[in-house]
Amino acid sequence: MGKGNDLISLEDVSKRYPNGTYALRDIDLHIEAGEFVFAVGSSGAGKSTLNRLLIREELSTNGRVVVDGQDVGRMTPGKVPHLRRKVGIVFQDFKLLQTKTVYENVAFALVVTGHGHRVIREETERALALVGLTPRRRHFPRELSGGEQQRTAIARALVMRPKILVADEPTGNLDPVTTWEIIKLLVRVNEMGTTVLIATHNAEIVNALRRRVIHLDHGRIIRDEREGLYAA
């Protein structure tokens, strides 16, 4: 069982779809504040479902999902936006708004949550500087490389100063050199105090970093090691 300082806690969690398929089964997982964790496994192992449970995009069929002390399953709809400010999400396909500039993409979450102009400017500039994109702030997504698009997505996820950053196959569409640039950026984000959970099937990254590895297979955790390797 977890301890009082768990930031993420899943207790006996299963996710079963109406057709009878289990995406997750009997998951017990506890992640403390400040950890850097890889969730590994082949496509369909349950990694993305795990991520969706953390932001209440899906609800578990059984068990409890607790994020920063809040039971996600018991949360009222009005509390969901507050939860999602605590959990930044980065996707494999970036999901940038094509008609907005880099600056506007990163600022968007602050704008829609009603922050003032000064806060929007200061926090957006901070996030852009963190990912090294200040010189590209006025460019549109179509004018960026894949790595720059992913940096924009990371800045957008960090602009609300979340406690947790969840990255779902963040290097899946990137070349090897750019992949390492993104991973080094995520390590730096973690070193600044953000808890990082990366879902990936890239064994090279996992084996080079030697961080905690949670190995999912057909919806079950089959291995949880502090300095793990991954033979894909």
Description:
This protein is α/β, with parallel strands linked by helices and 232 residues long. It has one domain: Rossmann fold (3-Layer(aba) Sandwich). Helices cover 33% and strands 27% of the residues. It is built from seven helices and ten strands. The chain has helices at 47-54, 80-86, 102-112, 117-131, 146-158, 176-191, 203-209; strands at 6-16, 22-32, 36-40, 62-67, 70-71, 87-91, 164-168, 195-200, 212-217, 220-225. It has a six-stranded mixed β-sheet, sandwiched between helices. The chain has a four-stranded antiparallel β-sheet with strand order 2-1-4-5, covered by helices on one side. Helix 3 (102-112) runs parallel beside helix 5 (146-158). The chain is globular and about 45 Å long.
Summed up, what is this model?
This protein is α/β, with parallel strands linked by helices and 232 residues long.
Q: Strand arrangement, largest sheet?
A: 6-7-8-3-9-10
| Total tally of structural domains | 1
CATH superfamily: P-loop containing nucleotide triphosphate hydrolases
Overall pLDDT level: 94
The CATH topology turns out to be Rossmann fold
- Taken in chain order, the helices and strands follow as EEEHEEHEHHHEHEHEE
Structural shape: globular
What portion of residues is helical? 25-40%
Count of DSSP E strands? 10
What proportion of the residues form beta strands (DSSP E)? 25-35%
Taking all Cα atoms into account, the compactness measure Rg is 17 Å
How far from one another are the termini?
A: 28 Å
The CATH class, by name, is Alpha Beta
User: Could you say what the CATH architecture is?
Assistant: 3-Layer(aba) Sandwich
Instruction: Quickly count the helices.
Output: 7
What class would the helix/strand composition place it in? alpha/beta
Biggest sheet character: 6 strands, mixed
